[in-house]
Amino acid sequence: MRKQQIERINVAFLSTYPPRACGLATFTEDLVREIDKIAPLYNPFVNTSIIAISDDTYIYDNKVIKEIDQFNKKDYLDLSKYLNNSEIDLLVIQHEYGIFGGESGEYLLDLIYNLSIPFTTVLHTVLTNPSEKQRHILREIGKYSEKVVTMAKNTIDLLTNIYEIEENKIVHIPHGVPYVYYGDREELKKELGLEGKIVISTFGLIGPGKGLEYGIEAVAKLKDEFPNVVYLILGRTHPGIIRNEGESYREKLLKMVEGLGVKENVIFVNKYLTKEEILKYLQASDIYMTPYLNKEQAVSGTLSYALACGRVIVSTAYRYAEELLADGRGILVDFRDSDGIYRAIRDVLRDEERRKEMEKKAFEYGKGMWWNVVAERYIEMFYEVVLGKDEEVRGWKKWSFSTPELITYLD
Fold first, then answer.
1. Are residues 161 and 21 both part of a single domain?
2. Whether residue 347 sits in one domain with residue 240
3. Per-residue pLDDT reduced to its tens digit, 223-234
4. Residue 392 belongs to some domain of the structure
5. What's the pLDDT band for 5 if we cut at 50, 70, 90?
6. What is the pLDDT of residues 64-86, one digit of tens each?
7. In terms of domains, do 60 and 116 share one?
8. Do 166 and 191 belong together in one domain?
9. Are 102 and 193 members of one domain?
10. Number of C-alpha atoms within 13 angstroms, CB side, residue 315?
11. Looking at the whole model, is its pTM more than 0.85?
12. What CATH number corresponds to the domain at position 314?
């Protein structure tokens, strides 16, 4: 069959997937949903499916065509045989060391060494100081991948120098974010029971690496000048943390809130939030805070969401934050520094003009991360890998979404 006669490309995503509670699962669901929305605008049509990585028993929707046990080494070899004898044209591996079995996820190598169809890899973690095992695994993934997607430009040098991945294989595509405008900030505060409050928020699966104790200490210092300040800690504890440590971290935070006398200023919303709830809380927020502790963190979906909502962001200076919040799009502070967080929030709350300018810069930058823009970039990459970059594509309707005009900046 001539490539010009192909009517569809079958793309399978190897990933965790809802209802498994995992940021990577949510990312994959969002990406696939957006590709499915715009795929009819293209010829060949991109047909998507999911191969789910499971660490427990889940009931998946019909998007999932196959499931593997994360901890069963044989499943990875069996998956390669399945794919080699299937109609799948391209496998997209969502990579995070912790979602694959074996030391540092080494079972994944059993799949890629035996795979005869092309695959691309989307990296959710790029370590600056990997163990030898971690370095070996990512180097091998890069060697065999047709393309390697990174969500942060500042990781490209790491991928070439530390992991020896050919630069012409590396593609930068930002972390996608949804955007639906739910209304005026003050009206949303009323809806959420936050009327008259200065709202600071953090959302995501909770665990010790989030550094929330430093955010709580900062709010305790803020409340004297801003008694109407509230800090929303939105999200349940990470299932892996609960499995290994129970709710000890959340209980520690609750005791800290009690001890600092900020029970009226710190609110825990202990649930796995829907996207609508996340966006409403973000759009009701005045400040978004990520006091994370890991300098190496290369991607943060929560930070991306807040930026796209045009919120003032105060964050510790992990690598992804340094890139996204450059050029006045946010405020960076030192790690484990509640005083620094306090001063950053205090100063921006005192300066309304600066706050509005920062919000506008964040929102304008965030437009380039909306899911429709990101999905288009992935489809272009799929065509390049499967059809070849110089191949004529019959009837390809290239509708550009790269400059969304649906929404302008809204105060």
1. yes
2. yes
3. 999 999 999 999
4. no
5. low
6. 999 999 999 999 999 999 999 99
7. yes
8. no
9. no
10. 30
11. no
12. 3.40.50.2000
CA 320/CA 127 separation, integer angstroms: 12
Give the Å distances, CA to CA, from 167 to 125, 161, 173, 250: 18, 10, 14, 42
Has residue 410 been placed in a domain? no
CB atoms within 10 A of CB 71: 13
Give the integer Cα–Cα distance in Å for 255 and 273: 24
Reduce the DSSP state of residue 110 to 3 states and report it.
helix
Question: Taking a C-beta distance cutoff of 8 angstroms, is the pair 219, 338 a contact?
Answer: no
Q: Convert the pLDDT of each residue in 344-358 to its tens digit.
A: 999 999 999 999 999
Domain that includes residue 10, residue range = 3-176+370-387
> Residue 378: which of 195, 121, 189, 118 has the closest Cα?
121
Clarify whether residues 133 and 162 are in a common domain.
Answer: yes
How many CB atoms sit inside 10 A of residue 57's CB? 6
CB 147 within 8 A of CB 120: yes
Contacts of 339 (CB under 8 A, 6+ apart): 218, 221
Q: Are residues 208 and 95 in the same domain?
A: no
Tally the domains of the chain.
2
Report whether 250 contacts 268 (CB < 8 A).
yes
Residues 6+ apart with CB under 8 A from 368: 174, 402
Task: Kindly list the strands in the beta sheet with 64-69, ordered across the sheet, starting from the edge strand earlier in the chain.
Answer: 64-69, 45-54, 8-15, 90-95, 119-123, 147-150, 170-172
166 and 207 share one domain: no
Q: Which two tokens stand for residue 111?
A: 């799949």
Any domain includes 394: no
| Residue 304 burial by Cβ neighbours in a 10 Å radius (0-12, 13-18, 19+) | buried
